[in-house]
Amino acid sequence: MFIIKDTLPSTSSYLAGIAADAPHGTAVMAREQTAGRGQRGNSWEAEPGCNITLSLLLRPEGLHPARQFVISQAVSLAIADLVSHFVAAPVSIKWPNDIYVDDRKICGILIENTITGSSIDRTIVGIGLNVNQTEFRSDAPNPVSMRQLMPKIEFDVESLARAMVSDILGRVDAALASPQQSLSGEYFSRLWRNQGWHPFYDHQRGHTMTARVDSVDPSGIITLTDRADGIARTYAFKEISWL
User: Fold this and answer.
1) What is the pTM of this model?
2) Nearest Cα to 234, choosing from 80, 67, 95?
3) pLDDT band at 41, cuts 50/70/90?
C-alpha cells in the first residue's frame, strides 16, 4: 500500500497512527512535511514537492532485537544502491545510516522499532532523500540533492519513491528470509571514511580524537582505534560523533 498526502506534519507519526491495521510494506509519502524529524531530534528541511519525505512500515517477523541493525543495513544499502544508479560520484553510508555523496549528505534515515517481548513487532523507517531541491536554507552543514549533482535531470519524485520502496522491501525481505547471510561485509565496504584516520568526538571520555574505523558488528556497534594510544574501543550510536 502506497499512500500519498499533500501535506503532513510527519509521515512517521501518521504511519504510527494507522500501523495497527496496516500491512508490512505500507508506505506514506507527503509532498510537504512540516515537522519531519531526523536523528538526534533534528528537523529535516525539504522544499515542498521537491524531495522524498516518506515513511515505511516493516513487520520483521521473528527478528530478535539483538539483530535489529540488519534493518538499518538493508535500508541504507538499498538507498545507496539506488542513488548510485544516477550519480557518478562515490556514494557511501555514514554510520549508522546517513547516505553521503562524497562528503555531502543526500539522505537521512530514522529507524524506530517497537519491541514486544523477545521480538520486534514493527519498524517505522523515516526517509528524507534530497531529489530536486537546489537551494538549502537551514544551517545543515553539507546537504546536496540529486538535481544538484545531475543538473540536466528533473526527477519524477513519486516514481523514484516507489522504486526506492520496492528496493528496500527486496533488501529487507531477503535479509529476513536468510538470517545466516550477513550484510556486515557489504555494509562496511560502503561505509563512509572506512579507510585511514579521521577526527571524532568521544562523548564517553569527553574529548576529540583521531581514530580509524575497524569494524561495525551485527548489532551496530562501531569499533574505533584511537591513534594516540592504539586502543580499540567500541561505541553505540550517540556515544561518538564524526567531526
Assistant:
1) 0.92
2) 95
3) low
